[in-house]
Amino acid sequence: MVRSYFRRAYSSFTAHVFDIPPRLMAFLFFLLLLTVPAMQLGSYVLRLLIMANIFAIFAVSWDLLVGRTGQISLGHALFFGIGGYTSGLLFQFFALPIWVTIPAAVAIGALAGFLIGFPCLRVKGPYLALITMAFPLILSNLVKWSPLEPIFGGELGFRSLPPFFPFLPFTQAIMAEYYLILLLLFVSSIVIYKIANSKTGIVFVSILDDEVASKACGINVTRYKIFAFTISSFFASLAGCLQAHILKLANPPMFSLDISFLPVILTFLGGIGTIYGPIVGSYIYVILDRYIMSILLPKAFESVGWTLPREFDFAKLLIFTLIVLVLIIKWPRGLARFATDELQNLEEARDLDERGPRIWKRYKKTKH
């Protein structure tokens, strides 16, 4: 019985993963991420990868809303900040444990997405983008407003939030946090993938292609848009909670425009309308911004005896922006989607080579 089970599992893996090059690459990439802590790259690199996984959850949530339904949101920092601040509020005033504050904060973030979806969906296109961008700016000023400072902590926000594994030593705690965030990224991606490839996902794409035609077919477009807003805000709030407890900090910059534009950059780097694209874009962003531009480049200058002035921070931002622009212009559909298309071309060529002679023999038999 056990042998037959493993035989069926192996057959299913071969048919659905091994024989499909893009899925095989995704599987190998996930295995690589599982072995990263064993490489002993240091706590700083592990912390960078943890942030990349959090950004990936955030970007995938934005991609579900924009890449699948076409609802342009430039205020996703609202849900990101709600998640972090709600978890901080529950800990600060009620001393609730982390396994209670995070689910409650995620639920409140999803509720906020449900409620905000109604007024936002009365407008379309750039007007929708402007309205969604206004919400996090308003909430950012509210949390810094002096009468509310005793509640939200003012400009400092909430500090000393509880970590995930306070009972572990520092090195082991970082490794445990890495695997926890990686597991949450995997689960979030699978859930969003299932939604995107279900009947609901097909309706999302029909709304993206032609909203009027979808209404003519009897689809309740408003209900599906609200559902997309709610699911997207759910995972965005989860990302905000994770960052708040990883950094032990929830402050007003969580509502900033930088956070709102972050999933846009990550998604377009990897490929919009996919699940894997934002994940790949998150790693590209973190490697470029936090590792190459912040660590390797200064060390390269120091190795030749040059000292970098303070103005280099602005030059670094300019260089990073130019690199991102070049990548987007060169591969407008995203780096991950470009790689996937190339792998699919290889798959088609392999299928033609393997099945072509047999198809030709069968064709000759039917002719005779």
From the helix content, strand content and strand pairing, which structural class follows?
Answer: mainly alpha
The major sheet is characterized as: 2 strands, antiparallel
Low-confidence stretches: 358-365
Our measurement of the CA-to-CA distance between the termini, rounded to an integer number of angstroms, reads: 47 Å
Question: What pattern of helices and strands is seen along the backbone?
Answer: HHHHHHHEHHHHEHHHH
> Which strand order spans the largest sheet, edge to edge or round the barrel?
1-2
By DSSP, the count of extended strands is 2
Q: Indicate the radius of gyration in whole angstroms.
A: 23 Å
In percent terms, what proportion of residues is strand?
under 5%
Number of helices: 15
Notes on the structure:
This protein has 368 residues and is mostly helical. The chain is 79% helix and 1% strand. It is built from 15 helices and 2 strands. The protein has helices at 2-18, 21-35, 43-69, 77-94, 98-120, 125-144, 149-152, 170-196, 199-209, 211-216, 221-247, 257-270, 276-303, 312-330, 335-367; strands spanning 158-159, 249-250. The chain has a two-stranded antiparallel sheet. α3 runs parallel beside α8, α4 (77-94) packs antiparallel against α5 and α5 packs antiparallel against α11 (221-247). The termini are far apart. Residues 358-365 have low confidence and may be disordered.
